[in-house]
Amino acid sequence: MRVSVIRKAHFNAAHRLYRPDWSEERNREVFGLCSNPNFHGHNYELEVCVTGEVDEETGMVINLKDLKDIIYEEVERPFDHKNLNLDVEEFKDLIPTSEHFCYVIWQRLRKVLPSKFDLQVRLYETPRNFFEYPPRT
Ligand code: NI
Quick check: pTM over 0.70? Predict the structure, then answer.
């Protein structure tokens, strides 16, 4: 039997959506308030969904303590209270939109999560705007 196990996490980070090859005007037009030159913050909520077989001995898919530790190491520690543009290697040449951010988070978690598990992440930039990787079909 396969079950999905979901763990929530919370962190906040600052960013600016901006293309240096565009004018200030065009950046403002496309990215709006998210292009504010002095950065701004978001309270991100993350849902990490791990799907796999329920182990016959433990009755568990994954130990939630292990999942909690992985999320802390791969997401909260590197991103919480950080400026995504300035502090995070992945966003050196990548605009820190939530589309990119949820993919970056998925990649980090995928690297350390055993391959027998399926992995989905959902990232809330605001309570009403959220992003998912892999995409829904
Ligand atoms: Ni923003």
Answer: yes
